[in-house]
């Protein structure tokens, strides 16, 4: 799935322009950290790994930009607990 990016969010829209997957993040820590606030996937698309895919894209962007990540939403927190490569980018309060 191809996601669009703008500062503060990654998203996908269907052919009619309806957003069906979205990750929202805030810029904190004087721009050094992105807080992963929310990941939403349309009900009919759930169970296909889309939340994992959109999170992976944000993690890759953060890694390339040398940005730390603060997983706030429950899904992101769960993934950060499971993945050592994500934990390496995790912001420590």
UniProtKB/TrEMBL annotation:
InterPro entries (UniProt xref): Acyl_CoA_acyltransferase (IPR016181), GNAT_dom (IPR000182), GNAT_YJDJ (IPR031165)
Keywords: Transferase
Gene3D superfamilies named in the record: 3.40.630.30
Domain N-acetyltransferase: 1-93, 3-93
GO molecular function, one term: acyltransferase activity, transferring groups other than amino-acyl groups
Pfam families, A to Z: Acetyltransf_CG (PF14542)
Organism in which the protein naturally occurs: Weissella oryzae (strain DSM 25784 / JCM 18191 / LMG 30913 / SG25)
Protein's name according to its UniProt entry: Acetyltransferase
Keyword Lipid metabolism applies: no
Domain of life from the UniProt record: Bacteria
């Amino acid at each position: 799935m191809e996601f669009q990016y703008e500062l503060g969010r990654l998203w996908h829209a269907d052919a009619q322009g309806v957003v069906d997957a979205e990750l929202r993040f805030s810029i904190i820590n004087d721009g050094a950290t992105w807080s992963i606030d929310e990941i939403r996937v349309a009900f009919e698309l759930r169970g296909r790994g889309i939340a994992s895919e959109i999170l992976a894209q944000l993690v890759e962007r953060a890694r390339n930009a040398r940005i730390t990540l603060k997983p706030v939403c429950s899904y992101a927190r769960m993934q950060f607990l499971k993945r050592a490569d994500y934990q390496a980018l995790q912001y420590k309060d």
